[in-house]
Design a protein that fits this description.
Elements lengths: L1 H7 L5 H13 L4 H75 L3 H46 L4 H25 L6 H13 L5 E7 L10 H11 L10 E5 L2 H9 L3 E4 L16 H19 L3 E5 L3 E3 L15 E7 L10 E9 L3 H12 L9 H10 L2 H4 L4 E3 L5 E3 L12 E3 L6 H21 L3 H5 L7 H5 L4
Parallel strand pairs: 1-2, 1-4, 2-3, 6-8, 9-10
Antiparallel strand pairs: 4-7, 5-10, 6-7
Helix pairs in contact: 1-3, 2-3, 3-4, 7-13, 9-10
Pfam family, one: Nucleotid_trans
Keywords: Coiled coil
Protein name: Nucleotide-diphospho-sugar transferase domain-containing protein
């Protein structure tokens, strides 16, 4: 009985319960059988007691772990709140400093140099932070893999079982291949299927879509290029409703996540192992490759029967362009110009493929096929240069294309500013070498536009309006 008491904490009537049970089941038996019965009863009771004690210990430990976990979670939440608070303070501080230095940058060369240094410092710290996060992730992954390796090393590998599993997988693959072969006549290519879905979702009733292409470099930072581009739709006249017809084609997972977060129409373009993630410096090899991949994709869109406006994301839409684009269906292509010579039908205009509207028909499909076929025979030329050469060689006339070249009064750029802010439709940061320079000068355009719509009340103020000089883009060619 002393052993039972130590194990189960006898007392308070438990001893009596034990004796009652013993007498109930064993007393009616003979002496020898009574001894056997009582011994078995005692062994069973002791086993039950040990189990009860173990359960109580596990319960206590579980409660202690719950308390510890709750404490860790509380500390984690507090650290996250503190981190968010610090991040918000840093963002507010940077915004104030950026705005202050930006105003000074418009006054003199020293201010512009200071703003350039500020943006470089901010970009460097963003890169450092990203590298630290990547290093931390890598360390955690290394630790995780080391743990998995240790676990695998402690296991004995059953070769026969592995072979059996492999044979099972092969049989399943054979069945799947047979099923796919049987259904091939009814299947649709997944590339086309997804593309058709997003095109149909974004298009107007007459199957026209607005298309822009971005990669990681255009979606990261405090005020990335994609956000500046979308600001134009928000601040422009009659442009906000056009967002529902905008399809953002992305080159990588980061830009795809950003696009879906903004609830836009998004399509991830397959790049066949080519890295189109970071900034591609103007006229670099990767820049030229990316432009050709863009041309190939846009040709595929035409072949699916969709007309489109293609726009670079460094084009601000300040007014609805459909009001200034011809709706004459005999015009196959309406394309922007770097420098407009005054004649909208003159093939001597210098084109810019950063903004154009094209109709889907046999002539334009043939043009894109011809254009893309020049890719491997145009070393050192970007796709825009090749298209300009096709015009000079008379290829547009050979295909029977009717082309309208857009006046920079309406479809302007940094190469040639619009002289009429009351008529301007788009502003393109062309004649500029780097993304950061484009963003800085496009922000200046947004400031100018806000100033115009806030203060303009008569034609006199419109006639005296001046765009802020594009200092950052001018300086981008110096380094």
């Amino acid at each position: 009985m002393r052993v039972g008491k130590e194990l189960c904490g006898f007392g308070g009537g438990k001893e009596l319960g034990f004796l009652v049970g013993l007498s109930k089941w064993c007393w009616p038996l003979g002496l020898a059988d009574f001894l056997d019965c009582s011994g078995g009863w005692l062994a069973s009771a002791l086993a039950s007691c040990r189990h009860s004690v173990r359960v109580e210990e596990i319960t206590k430990n579980s409660r202690k772990e719950d308390v510890d976990i709750e404490k860790i979670l509380k500390e984690t939440r507090e650290l996250q709140l503190e981190s968010n608070s610090v991040q918000e303070r840093l963002n507010r501080t940077h915004a104030v400093v950026d705005e202050t230095v930006f105003r000074e940058a418009q006054k003199d060369q020293v201010g512009r140099q200071a703003y350039r240094i500020l943006t470089n410092i901010h970009g460097s710290f963003e890169q450092i932070a990203e590298n630290l996060l990547a290093t931390d992730r890598a360390r955690r992954e290394v630790t995780n893999y080391e743990g998995k390796l240790a676990t695998m090393a402690s296991r004995s590998v059953d070769i026969d079982k592995l072979k059996a599993d492999l044979d099972t997988i092969r049989r399943e693959n054979d069945l799947l291949e047979k099923k796919l072969s049987k259904d091939s006549s009814q299947s649709i290519n997944m590339y086309e299927d997804k593309l058709e879905e997003v095109l149909a979702g974004a298009s107007t009733e007459d199957k026209t879509v607005i298309i822009a292409i971005v990669n990681k470099a255009y979606v990261e930072g405090d005020k990335p290029m994609l956000d500046i581009f979308l600001d134009g739709f928000w601040l422009g006249e009659g442009t906000d409703d056009l967002i529902k017809h905008l399809l953002i084609v992305v080159m990588d997972q980061t830009s795809y996540r950003r696009c879906t977060f903004l609830h836009l129409h998004c399509y991830k373009l397959q790049t066949e192992g080519v890295d189109f993630v970071g900034e591609k410096l103007y006229m670099s090899k990767d820049f030229i490759k990316m432009m050709w991949r863009r041309t190939q994709f846009l040709g595929d869109v035409l072949k699916r029967g969709y007309s489109f406006i293609f726009t670079d994301t460094d084009v601000l839409w300040l007014r609805n362009p459909f009001s200034n684009l011809s709706h004459n269906k005999s015009i196959d292509l309406q394309i922007s110009t770097d420098i407009f010579n005054g004649d909208q039908w003159s093939e001597a205009n210098l084109i810019n493929t950063g903004f154009y509207m094209i109709r889907s028909n046999n002539k334009t499909i043939a043009l894109f096929d011809k254009w893309y076929s020049k890719k491997n025979n145009s070393t050192g030329l970007k796709e825009q240069d090749v298209l300009q050469n096709l015009i000079r060689e008379g290829e547009f006339q050979n295909l029977g294309l009717k082309v309208r070249f857009l006046d920079t009064i309406y479809f302007s750029g940094f190469c040639q500013n619009s002289k009429d802010v009351g008529a301007v439709v788009t502003v393109h940061s062309n004649c500029c070498r780097r993304i950061r320079a484009k963003m800085a000068d496009l922000l200046a355009v947004i400031h100018d536009w806000k100033r115009f719509i806030a203060t303009t009340t008569n034609d006199t103020e419109t006639s005296t309006f001046q765009w802020t000089p594009h200092y950052f883009c001018q300086d981008s060619w110096l380094n």
